Amino acid sequence: MNVLLVHAHPEPRSFTAALRDQAVETLQAQGHQVQVSDLYAMDWNPVASADDFSARENPEYLVYALEQRLGVKSQTLAADIQQELDKLLWADLLILNFPIYWFSAPAMLKGWIDRVLVSGICYGGKRFYDQGGLRGKKALVSVTLGGREHMFGEGAIHGPLEDMLRPILRGTLAYVGLDVLPPFVAWHVPYISAEARQEFLASYQQRLENLGQDQPIEFPRLSQFDDGLYPLAQNTR
Amino acid sequence: MNVLLVHAHPEPRSFTAALRDQAVETLQAQGHQVQVSDLYAMDWNPVASADDFSARENPEYLVYALEQRLGVKSQTLAADIQQELDKLLWADLLILNFPIYWFSAPAMLKGWIDRVLVSGICYGGKRFYDQGGLRGKKALVSVTLGGREHMFGEGAIHGPLEDMLRPILRGTLAYVGLDVLPPFVAWHVPYISAEARQEFLASYQQRLENLGQDQPIEFPRLSQFDDGLYPLAQNTR
């Protein structure tokens, strides 16, 4: 497999970075090719703007997704976007590796999503969810957070973590057609012992060595909806 | 009321900007004080990093939230963060005004959340949800998106929009103690007529003129959980 790991953490020696290194080591040991986009180290620009396009469909008025489509066709996307897009298209597996900030991705990583998942390639028209432009590839989210495990789940104070991660898991990764594997989560990281961290790393290694057995999360399929994207009646499915 | 409107859109003449202007005009006409943080116009830096602290609790290893707490106490937060924080503390109502990118906020706005909602003031320890540091203030999210209204809701292809916005509505705004009003949503914006846009503006104006009647969305209260944040049994509530 070709693997693209996108990593975003402001501390180079963070435990999130240890998860990144564990993934690289484990996946390479299994014979996979791995590329890492370390967004802080790259000084990645997370801001979607008119500067992302060297030619414009409409120079007077920016509709970002429309300009992405032209940029793809005419190969006039900004160089930093095109490089990440090339890595993404090369990859069979995308790993997003980050600390949970406000129950979602740090702005640095959100800006990778905003700029790299371009309309016209990753999605467009009726190409989304199971018909998305990146179908056939897989995605894994690996996250660290401060909260304890019992604060998440049905009836817990924050509800299920998967519900908080919905815009990423469903609204982004599944939307562009990726098979989204259940997230890997390291809980309570700033407060735990070195031994507990080692246990998370060992557990992540084992998870990565057996990724082939993971079942993707279920999401809507376009065949469940009509041409106007209204739900088909249950009895006609 | 004092109102802080945080706006993030890469096109200065966007319909999202028209919503911003409508809000300013309507609220001022009602006698409210309004400040606008136009993040693209300000060239806001959305990247949380070590540069955000001129003094460090631990110069060797960055734990962002811990450094925020010191920065608050010793007034060593970066000037751009402190300015936004001062506006936030001045405000009785926070409006986040943005186009939906990937079912969430553009990185530009996410980076305002990451950097400005500092630990030690906005939350910390057991001060979150109804005990959050910003309790007593209100929040309103006003968004534009490309999708049609029937694509959202129970059974719809994307599910309820409120579920997609959960990390913002619950995980961010309610987490810091704000009373979160139901979002204002302008659907299908890139594809609709000028008249349809005017209708959204009129409807937004009416909504803003009657904000006092809006009931906040219900979220967990800390009194429903024990000291370890485990849920109390239903019959002991």
Automatic annotation (TrEMBL), chains A, B:
Domain of life of the native organism: Bacteria
Keyword Oxidoreductase listed: yes
Flavodoxin-like fold domain: residues covered: 1-208
A GO cellular-component term linked to this record: cytosol
InterPro entries from the UniProt entry: Flavodoxin_fold (IPR003680), Flavoprotein-like_sf (IPR029039), NAD(P)H_dehydrogenase_qn (IPR051545)
GO molecular function: NAD(P)H dehydrogenase (quinone) activity
Keywords: Oxidoreductase
Claim: Oxidoreductase is one of the keywords in the record: yes
PANTHER family recorded: NAD P H OXIDOREDUCTASE-RELATED, NAD(P)H DEHYDROGENASE [QUINONE] 1 ISOFORM 1
Similarity comment text for this entry: Belongs to the NAD(P)H dehydrogenase (quinone) family.
Protein name per its UniProtKB record: Flavodoxin family protein
Lineage: Bacteria, Pseudomonadati, Pseudomonadota, Gammaproteobacteria, Pseudomonadales
